[in-house]
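Can anyone check this?
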Amino acid sequence: MPQHPAFNVLTASCPSRTSLARIANKWTAMVVSALDGGRLRFSDLRSAVDGISGKVLTETLRELERDGLVSRTAYAEVPPRVEYELTPLGRTLRTPLQALNRWAEEHIEQVLAARDVYDARD
């Protein structure tokens, strides 16, 4: 059985850094969270992720598809229909991203207060 190197995101040359950077990206987290409810068309996904541009959504979906986190299904219809959904690998992000979303919502008041204190020091 081949031995894999020990991956460590703190090592500059570790390829796991690219995965961490992708997952830590705000748009990635929001797109994955939006797809948590199931398959969505591009327009529905864009509506679900308030503030994302079509260009950024397209780029994010391509990156997620490349990393095996999202699948894209195109239907030969008029007009064309394309749907996106989380792959089994993408679904493994549900729990950690739900925890991060919950943390952000539960602690935003404390974060905003800390910012105010910090900004008032100047």
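Reply from J.R.: I decoded it. The mean pLDDT is 92.
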